[in-house]
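>> Question from a student workshop board

For tomorrow's exercise we were told to take the sequence and the ligand below, predict the bound structure, and bring the output to class. My setup keeps failing. Could a helper post the expected result so I can at least see what it should look like? The ligand is nicotinamide-adenine-dinucleotide.
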Amino acid sequence: MTAEASYRRHNRARILEGGPIAAEIRSRLSNEVRSFRDRGGFAPTLAVLLIGADAPSAVYLHQIVRSCRSTGVTGRVVEMGERVTTALIRRRIDELNRDPLVSGIIVQMPLPRRIPLRAVIESIDPRKDVDGLHPQNAGLLSLGYEGFLPATAQAAVEILKRSGYRLEGLDATVIGRSNVVGKPASLLLQREHCTVTTCHRRTDDLPGHVARADLVVVAAGSPGLVTGAMLKPGALVVDVGINVVGDRIVGDVEFESASKVADAITPVPGGVGPLTNAILLEHLLAAARAQHGE
Ligand code: NAD
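>> Workshop helper replied:
Here is what the output should look like for this input. Compare the format with yours to find the bug.
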Protein backbone atom coordinates (compact mmCIF):
# COMPACT_ATOMS: atom_id res chain seq x y z
CA MET A 1 0.00 0.00 0.00
CA THR A 2 1.35 3.46 -0.83
CA ALA A 3 1.90 5.98 1.96
CA GLU A 4 -0.99 7.99 0.59
CA ALA A 5 -3.44 5.06 0.56
CA SER A 6 -2.41 4.08 4.08
CA TYR A 7 -3.05 7.59 5.41
CA ARG A 8 -6.46 7.81 3.81
CA ARG A 9 -7.42 4.44 5.24
CA HIS A 10 -6.63 5.76 8.68
CA ASN A 11 -8.71 8.83 8.06
CA ARG A 12 -5.82 11.15 7.62
CA ALA A 13 -4.94 13.74 5.04
CA ARG A 14 -3.94 12.85 1.53
CA ILE A 15 -0.20 13.40 1.27
CA LEU A 16 0.70 15.43 -1.78
CA GLU A 17 4.15 14.28 -2.79
CA GLY A 18 6.05 16.44 -5.23
CA GLY A 19 8.41 13.66 -6.31
CA PRO A 20 6.12 11.78 -8.74
CA ILE A 21 4.89 15.01 -10.37
CA ALA A 22 8.48 16.24 -10.65
CA ALA A 23 9.59 12.90 -12.15
CA GLU A 24 6.92 13.22 -14.83
CA ILE A 25 8.06 16.75 -15.68
CA ARG A 26 11.73 15.71 -15.70
CA SER A 27 11.10 12.76 -17.97
CA ARG A 28 9.31 14.98 -20.51
CA LEU A 29 12.03 17.60 -20.13
CA SER A 30 14.89 15.19 -20.73
CA ASN A 31 13.40 14.32 -24.13
CA GLU A 32 12.93 17.98 -24.93
CA VAL A 33 16.46 18.85 -23.77
CA ARG A 34 17.83 16.06 -25.98
CA SER A 35 16.06 17.40 -29.04
CA PHE A 36 17.11 20.99 -28.21
CA ARG A 37 20.71 19.74 -28.01
CA ASP A 38 20.36 17.94 -31.34
CA ARG A 39 19.13 21.13 -32.99
CA GLY A 40 21.38 23.65 -31.24
CA GLY A 41 24.51 21.60 -30.57
CA PHE A 42 24.60 22.30 -26.84
CA ALA A 43 22.65 21.57 -23.66
CA PRO A 44 21.34 24.61 -21.79
CA THR A 45 23.30 25.57 -18.68
CA LEU A 46 21.77 26.72 -15.41
CA ALA A 47 24.26 28.88 -13.53
CA VAL A 48 23.75 28.81 -9.78
CA LEU A 49 25.50 31.61 -7.97
CA LEU A 50 26.42 30.63 -4.43
CA ILE A 51 27.62 33.39 -2.16
CA GLY A 52 28.83 32.34 1.29
CA ALA A 53 27.50 29.24 3.06
CA ASP A 54 24.02 28.72 4.52
CA ALA A 55 22.52 25.38 5.60
CA PRO A 56 19.00 25.38 3.99
CA SER A 57 20.45 26.97 0.89
CA ALA A 58 23.03 24.19 0.58
CA VAL A 59 20.28 21.52 0.80
CA TYR A 60 18.37 23.25 -1.98
CA LEU A 61 21.52 23.61 -4.08
CA HIS A 62 22.32 19.88 -4.02
CA GLN A 63 18.78 19.06 -5.11
CA ILE A 64 19.01 21.49 -8.04
CA VAL A 65 22.31 20.08 -9.26
CA ARG A 66 20.89 16.53 -9.06
CA SER A 67 17.80 17.59 -11.02
CA CYS A 68 19.97 19.19 -13.69
CA ARG A 69 21.95 15.99 -14.15
CA SER A 70 18.83 13.85 -14.44
CA THR A 71 17.43 15.94 -17.31
CA GLY A 72 20.62 16.37 -19.32
CA VAL A 73 20.96 20.04 -18.43
CA THR A 74 24.31 21.42 -17.27
CA GLY A 75 24.26 22.75 -13.71
CA ARG A 76 27.16 25.13 -13.15
CA VAL A 77 27.74 26.17 -9.54
CA VAL A 78 29.52 29.50 -9.43
CA GLU A 79 30.92 29.83 -5.93
CA MET A 80 31.89 33.19 -4.53
CA GLY A 81 33.33 33.52 -1.04
CA GLU A 82 31.63 35.13 1.96
CA ARG A 83 33.79 38.27 1.57
CA VAL A 84 33.14 38.97 -2.13
CA THR A 85 32.05 42.53 -3.03
CA THR A 86 28.77 43.48 -4.70
CA ALA A 87 30.71 44.93 -7.65
CA LEU A 88 32.48 41.62 -8.21
CA ILE A 89 29.20 39.69 -8.04
CA ARG A 90 27.65 42.03 -10.62
CA ARG A 91 30.66 41.61 -12.89
CA ARG A 92 30.38 37.82 -12.63
CA ILE A 93 26.65 37.98 -13.43
CA ASP A 94 27.39 40.17 -16.41
CA GLU A 95 29.79 37.53 -17.75
CA LEU A 96 27.06 34.91 -17.34
CA ASN A 97 24.56 37.23 -19.07
CA ARG A 98 26.88 37.36 -22.07
CA ASP A 99 27.71 33.62 -22.09
CA PRO A 100 25.60 32.05 -24.90
CA LEU A 101 25.76 28.61 -23.27
CA VAL A 102 24.19 29.90 -20.05
CA SER A 103 20.42 30.08 -20.49
CA GLY A 104 19.43 30.74 -16.88
CA ILE A 105 20.94 32.29 -13.77
CA ILE A 106 19.75 31.87 -10.20
CA VAL A 107 21.20 33.24 -7.01
CA GLN A 108 21.10 31.13 -3.87
CA MET A 109 19.51 32.94 -0.96
CA PRO A 110 19.85 34.29 1.62
CA LEU A 111 22.75 36.47 0.62
CA PRO A 112 25.19 37.69 3.26
CA ARG A 113 23.54 40.71 4.95
CA ARG A 114 25.94 43.31 3.57
CA ILE A 115 25.15 42.38 -0.08
CA PRO A 116 22.07 44.28 -1.36
CA LEU A 117 19.79 41.72 -3.00
CA ARG A 118 18.29 44.30 -5.32
CA ALA A 119 21.65 45.20 -6.86
CA VAL A 120 22.37 41.53 -7.50
CA ILE A 121 18.95 40.64 -8.91
CA GLU A 122 18.79 43.72 -11.14
CA SER A 123 22.04 42.76 -12.81
CA ILE A 124 20.57 39.48 -14.11
CA ASP A 125 19.33 39.67 -17.71
CA PRO A 126 15.52 39.32 -17.32
CA ARG A 127 15.57 36.75 -20.16
CA LYS A 128 17.88 34.57 -18.04
CA ASP A 129 16.05 35.26 -14.75
CA VAL A 130 14.49 31.78 -14.58
CA ASP A 131 13.45 32.22 -10.93
CA GLY A 132 11.40 35.30 -11.78
CA LEU A 133 12.92 37.73 -9.28
CA HIS A 134 13.99 40.56 -11.58
CA PRO A 135 11.68 43.60 -11.27
CA GLN A 136 10.65 43.12 -14.90
CA ASN A 137 9.40 39.57 -14.27
CA ALA A 138 7.89 40.53 -10.88
CA GLY A 139 6.04 43.37 -12.63
CA LEU A 140 4.74 41.03 -15.33
CA LEU A 141 3.46 38.67 -12.63
CA SER A 142 1.68 41.43 -10.74
CA LEU A 143 0.01 42.66 -13.96
CA GLY A 144 -1.01 39.14 -14.93
CA TYR A 145 1.20 39.00 -18.01
CA GLU A 146 3.45 36.18 -19.07
CA GLY A 147 7.00 36.16 -17.66
CA PHE A 148 9.20 33.94 -15.54
CA LEU A 149 7.47 33.07 -12.27
CA PRO A 150 9.30 32.42 -9.00
CA ALA A 151 9.61 28.63 -9.14
CA THR A 152 8.80 27.90 -5.48
CA ALA A 153 5.62 29.97 -5.50
CA GLN A 154 4.57 28.35 -8.76
CA ALA A 155 5.30 24.89 -7.32
CA ALA A 156 3.17 25.64 -4.25
CA VAL A 157 0.18 26.28 -6.52
CA GLU A 158 1.00 23.63 -9.14
CA ILE A 159 1.19 20.82 -6.59
CA LEU A 160 -2.48 21.43 -5.79
CA LYS A 161 -3.60 21.85 -9.39
CA ARG A 162 -1.71 18.80 -10.61
CA SER A 163 -3.21 16.79 -7.74
CA GLY A 164 -6.66 17.63 -9.10
CA TYR A 165 -7.84 20.40 -6.74
CA ARG A 166 -10.02 23.23 -7.98
CA LEU A 167 -8.89 26.43 -6.37
CA GLU A 168 -11.50 28.86 -7.69
CA GLY A 169 -13.41 30.63 -4.94
CA LEU A 170 -11.38 29.20 -2.06
CA ASP A 171 -10.43 31.37 0.91
CA ALA A 172 -6.64 31.13 0.89
CA THR A 173 -4.29 32.29 3.62
CA VAL A 174 -0.65 32.70 2.70
CA ILE A 175 1.80 33.05 5.60
CA GLY A 176 4.85 34.97 4.42
CA ARG A 177 5.18 37.96 2.11
CA SER A 178 8.73 37.63 0.78
CA ASN A 179 9.39 38.52 -2.85
CA VAL A 180 10.64 34.98 -3.42
CA VAL A 181 7.72 32.94 -2.09
CA GLY A 182 4.89 34.55 -0.12
CA LYS A 183 4.11 37.56 -2.32
CA PRO A 184 4.21 35.71 -5.66
CA ALA A 185 2.24 32.80 -4.15
CA SER A 186 -0.48 35.28 -3.11
CA LEU A 187 -0.56 36.76 -6.62
CA LEU A 188 -0.69 33.33 -8.26
CA LEU A 189 -3.57 32.26 -6.02
CA GLN A 190 -5.44 35.42 -7.02
CA ARG A 191 -4.86 34.37 -10.62
CA GLU A 192 -6.52 31.08 -9.70
CA HIS A 193 -9.51 33.09 -8.42
CA CYS A 194 -8.92 32.46 -4.72
CA THR A 195 -9.75 35.12 -2.15
CA VAL A 196 -6.33 35.69 -0.64
CA THR A 197 -5.21 36.90 2.78
CA THR A 198 -1.47 37.46 3.15
CA CYS A 199 -0.07 37.16 6.69
CA HIS A 200 3.34 38.13 8.00
CA ARG A 201 5.25 38.67 11.22
CA ARG A 202 3.16 41.67 12.21
CA THR A 203 -0.21 40.09 11.48
CA ASP A 204 -2.36 40.54 14.59
CA ASP A 205 -4.48 37.43 14.51
CA LEU A 206 -2.65 34.72 12.59
CA PRO A 207 -4.73 31.88 14.14
CA GLY A 208 -7.95 33.64 13.06
CA HIS A 209 -6.78 33.92 9.44
CA VAL A 210 -5.65 30.29 9.40
CA ALA A 211 -8.88 29.03 10.97
CA ARG A 212 -10.98 30.65 8.22
CA ALA A 213 -8.88 29.33 5.34
CA ASP A 214 -9.84 26.54 2.94
CA LEU A 215 -6.25 26.64 1.74
CA VAL A 216 -3.16 27.53 3.77
CA VAL A 217 0.23 28.13 2.15
CA VAL A 218 2.96 28.47 4.76
CA ALA A 219 6.28 30.06 3.77
CA ALA A 220 7.59 31.60 6.97
CA GLY A 221 10.72 29.64 7.88
CA SER A 222 9.37 28.91 11.36
CA PRO A 223 9.10 25.24 12.36
CA GLY A 224 5.77 24.25 13.96
CA LEU A 225 4.15 27.62 13.19
CA VAL A 226 0.90 26.00 12.02
CA THR A 227 -0.61 23.13 14.00
CA GLY A 228 -3.59 20.89 13.39
CA ALA A 229 -5.60 22.68 16.08
CA MET A 230 -5.36 25.93 14.09
CA LEU A 231 -6.73 24.49 10.83
CA LYS A 232 -10.23 24.42 9.45
CA PRO A 233 -11.16 20.72 9.11
CA GLY A 234 -10.69 19.63 5.51
CA ALA A 235 -8.28 22.45 4.63
CA LEU A 236 -5.60 22.07 1.98
CA VAL A 237 -2.16 22.70 3.44
CA VAL A 238 0.95 23.54 1.44
CA ASP A 239 4.10 23.68 3.53
CA VAL A 240 6.88 25.55 1.78
CA GLY A 241 9.16 25.92 4.81
CA ILE A 242 12.54 24.26 4.89
CA ASN A 243 14.10 24.34 8.34
CA VAL A 244 17.08 22.44 9.62
CA VAL A 245 16.28 21.29 13.16
CA GLY A 246 19.08 19.23 14.65
CA ASP A 247 19.84 16.66 11.97
CA ARG A 248 16.36 16.79 10.42
CA ILE A 249 14.69 18.91 7.78
CA VAL A 250 11.20 20.03 8.77
CA GLY A 251 8.63 22.41 7.35
CA ASP A 252 6.63 25.20 9.01
CA VAL A 253 3.63 22.97 9.67
CA GLU A 254 3.40 20.47 12.50
CA PHE A 255 2.83 17.53 10.18
CA GLU A 256 1.57 14.99 12.71
CA SER A 257 -1.29 17.10 14.07
CA ALA A 258 -2.07 18.88 10.78
CA SER A 259 -2.44 15.64 8.84
CA LYS A 260 -5.26 14.59 11.19
CA VAL A 261 -7.32 17.67 10.34
CA ALA A 262 -6.40 18.64 6.77
CA ASP A 263 -7.86 17.08 3.64
CA ALA A 264 -4.47 17.19 1.94
CA ILE A 265 -0.99 18.25 3.00
CA THR A 266 2.44 18.50 1.39
CA PRO A 267 5.24 16.81 3.35
CA VAL A 268 8.67 18.30 4.09
CA PRO A 269 10.90 17.08 2.66
CA GLY A 270 9.33 15.65 -0.47
CA GLY A 271 6.50 18.10 -1.20
CA VAL A 272 7.01 21.50 -2.79
CA GLY A 273 10.84 21.20 -2.94
CA PRO A 274 11.19 18.53 -5.66
CA LEU A 275 8.52 20.20 -7.79
CA THR A 276 10.29 23.57 -7.47
CA ASN A 277 13.40 22.13 -9.06
CA ALA A 278 11.53 20.53 -11.94
CA ILE A 279 9.69 23.79 -12.63
CA LEU A 280 12.95 25.71 -12.57
CA LEU A 281 14.26 23.41 -15.29
CA GLU A 282 11.09 23.94 -17.31
CA HIS A 283 11.83 27.67 -17.12
CA LEU A 284 15.43 27.02 -18.13
CA LEU A 285 14.44 25.19 -21.28
CA ALA A 286 11.89 27.89 -22.13
CA ALA A 287 14.64 30.51 -21.67
CA ALA A 288 17.07 28.56 -23.86
CA ARG A 289 14.49 28.26 -26.63
CA ALA A 290 13.57 31.94 -26.48
CA GLN A 291 17.24 33.01 -26.54
CA HIS A 292 17.83 30.86 -29.60
CA GLY A 293 14.86 32.23 -31.46
CA GLU A 294 12.64 29.16 -31.16
P1 NAD B 1 11.80 35.09 4.37
O1 NAD B 1 12.47 35.02 5.71
O2 NAD B 1 12.30 36.01 3.33
O3 NAD B 1 10.26 35.48 4.61
C1 NAD B 1 9.52 34.91 5.62
C2 NAD B 1 8.15 35.55 5.65
O4 NAD B 1 7.38 34.89 6.65
C3 NAD B 1 8.18 37.03 6.02
O5 NAD B 1 7.27 37.72 5.21
C4 NAD B 1 7.72 37.06 7.48
O6 NAD B 1 7.00 38.24 7.80
C5 NAD B 1 6.85 35.82 7.56
N1 NAD B 1 6.90 35.21 8.89
C6 NAD B 1 8.00 34.71 9.52
N2 NAD B 1 7.65 34.26 10.76
C7 NAD B 1 6.33 34.48 10.88
C8 NAD B 1 5.40 34.26 11.93
N3 NAD B 1 5.79 33.72 13.10
N4 NAD B 1 4.11 34.60 11.72
C9 NAD B 1 3.72 35.16 10.56
N5 NAD B 1 4.56 35.40 9.53
C10 NAD B 1 5.84 35.06 9.69
O7 NAD B 1 11.74 33.58 3.85
P2 NAD B 1 11.44 33.01 2.35
O8 NAD B 1 12.64 33.17 1.52
O9 NAD B 1 10.14 33.54 1.88
O10 NAD B 1 11.29 31.47 2.68
C11 NAD B 1 10.25 30.99 3.51
C12 NAD B 1 10.49 29.52 3.82
O11 NAD B 1 10.41 28.78 2.59
C13 NAD B 1 11.87 29.22 4.39
O12 NAD B 1 11.74 28.16 5.32
C14 NAD B 1 12.67 28.76 3.20
O13 NAD B 1 13.72 27.89 3.56
C15 NAD B 1 11.61 28.03 2.42
N6 NAD B 1 11.88 27.92 0.97
C16 NAD B 1 11.54 26.76 0.38
C17 NAD B 1 11.76 26.57 -0.97
C18 NAD B 1 11.31 25.27 -1.60
O14 NAD B 1 11.62 25.00 -2.75
N7 NAD B 1 10.52 24.45 -0.92
C19 NAD B 1 12.34 27.58 -1.72
C20 NAD B 1 12.65 28.80 -1.12
C21 NAD B 1 12.40 28.96 0.24
